[in-house]
Amino acid sequence: MDIQIENHMPEGFVYEKTYDVMHGAVNGIALLIIPVKALNQFRIQLHADIEKSGVKDNFLAFLQELKQRHSTIQYTGYNGNDTITLNVESTERDDKDNLTLIVSELTSKCLECGIRNCCSQCRNVLPLRAAALDGTPVLLCENCFTQEINGTSGQNGQKENIFLGLLGAVLGTLLGAVLWVVIGMFGFIAGIAGFAMVFCGIKGYDMLGRRLSRKGIVICIVTACLMIMAAEYASLGIVIYQELGDMYYLSLVDSLALVPAFLEEPEVIQGVAKDLVIGYALAIWASFSSVRHIWRQVEQSQKPHTVVPF
Ligand SMILES: [Zn+2]
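A: This is the predicted complex of the input protein with zinc ion.
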């Protein structure tokens, strides 16, 4: 397939040389035609509301019949959603006539069945425009196009709520703190609880805050660090309660209130410092790779797309 695409284009189409794609509308239905040089074929792409049309079976049967009638059609496919694909073999000499006829029959059938174009992104039935999204040709509605241009796509209209997110992070890390205290009661340093804290904190932030941003992840990590200290404090209070509660008639609240006084003892402060250092180190070791993974996911989802209108 070594042809000048411009001379082989069906009526009503425009060729975008940079992205190697033809776009146009026939019978009011917008289509993309992408030359697939390696296969010596043209790929006709139609985005339409097939599922909602109520005539899906009829339309898919028509595609089979169209394939039988035109020997140049090598493949017809439906992605089960909203995209119809037809691969048409290039004969070079008759490409223009072949493609013109096939797109005309295809779009006439759409008209007859009441099948309308839908946006390749949001699937709403709206007027479409052709554009290159991250270098790939697409047909987008005006809303999705504007969102892509402004870099506000992929947010599902959900705005991050930092206050509720923080609340979620506190509740999530609190679960981890309980784990820290329980493991501490058995005399272990609870690094794994630090991991649970970070993880539950991020989950909590995502759930209540509606959306997780990189800022949210930092908030969760800071919350988890503070919560580890709180958990260590609580652990110490519980130890005091267990050791001295009976002897001095101390309640759990009394024991917790005594923690600062105990922390003035060099021996106690040394033990706590050791617990915290090892605990933090284990927590960082355990959660590093998963936090990095989530961070990259968030980064990817927030990356602005490049969209170039045709
Ligand atoms: Zn859209």
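Residues 119, 121-122, 124, 140-141, 143-144 surround zinc ion (CB under 6 Å). The chain has two domains: 5-150, 162-303.
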